[in-house]
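Schema walk-through. Below, the input block comes first and the output block second. Nothing else is stored per chain. Lengths vary across the set, and this one has 182 residues.
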Amino acid sequence: MSKKDKKNIDKEQVETSQAETVEIEEQVTEEQTKEEKLEAELKQEKDKFLRLFAEFENYKRRTSKERIELFSTASEDVMKTLLPVLDDFERALTHIEEDKEAEELRKGVLLIYQKLIKTLEQKGLKAMEVNKGDAFNADNHEAITQIPAPSDDLKGKIIDIVEKGYLLGEKVIRFPKVVIGQ
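--- output ---
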């Protein structure tokens, strides 16, 4: 073999090895891009999963809160229809107390009234505490009229309570109706 042939063979081997190196580098680059694509897809799917999981947790919390609220106020309509009955009992007791001859009747009406109140309280009904002389608050009271205040210290304050207010749990189902001083 001549030197020229040897050089050509060496040149061919170098070119072949360079071509193989380039081909291997391309394969490595191709595999790296595939791996990067797969990693990006995996990251995207993990992100979707985490968002979906968080959304589901929020949904569970929201529905359980709504369910608890529903149970606590499920009897709201029934309670609202019974409030006039309570008012009637209170008016009856007020008038019976004036009549001394109806003592036995007063005891019976009072017993029934107390039993009804106790039953409704067990179901979450509470009377709102409002007293004469309290400051009027439009968020908690319903003013039905204003009258001239008998004294300066009663201006803007509650002078009379016309109708009691009631809460069912923490929700106001009827605001107290009051007369305020002007």
